[in-house]
Amino acid sequence: MPYLPFNQDLNRLTLKVTNVAGDKAKVTWGSETKEFSKDQLAAGINLTAEFNTSPFEPAFQKLQGAVGQKQNLETMMIKQWITNFRGLPPDLKSDPEMQQALETMRKAFISYWQKLEANVRQQLVPVKHVVKIE
Predict the structure, then answer these.
(1) Which among 20, 70, 16 has a CA at the least distance from the CA of 45?
(2) Is the pTM of this model over 0.85?
(3) Residue of 8 and 126 predicted with greater confidence
(4) What SS3 state is found at 45?
């Protein structure tokens, strides 16, 4: 992130606080607390640029892990199985027993892929979080 202007250009998690009683206030987001001046808070602070971690990270990590599992299966299915099926000798391609075996494998791959796809979708959940200002 230090090499890209992502937070400045695209991140919209900006906290603006008006009517701060003192010169400074503590802001807690997730497990991290930082202190900001009254002027900084009035102008708005970019939460993801200011805080090293966010309450979204555990959910993002679970989602990323589920997507990675699905992508690994998809890569293996395409690069190792589907691509290699094309190279079967003609007599095996026309063999009914081989066709049945390939169809069984295809169904098994699709079934497993569907489970991984459903797991990815289950990871897309709202994240509830609190921003505390003291």
Answers:
(1) 16
(2) no
(3) 126
(4) strand
Report the chain's mean pLDDT, rounded to a whole number: 91
Between CA 3 and CA 104 the distance in angstroms is 49
The residue-averaged pLDDT of 25-51 equals 94
Any idea where the domains of the chain sit in the sequence?
6-54, 57-122
pLDDT of 1:
64
Placement of tokens 């959940």 in the chain: 125
Whether the Cβ atoms of residue 120 and residue 74 lie closer than 8 Å to each other: no
CA distance 46 to 16: 9
**45 pairs with which residues across the strands?**
15
What mean pLDDT do residues 58-73 have? 96
Residue-wise burial string across 79-116, b where 16 or more C-beta atoms lie within 10 A, e elsewhere: eeeeeeeeeeeeeeeeeeeeeeebeeeeeebeeeeeeb
* Whole-number Å distance between alpha carbons of 37 and 19: 12
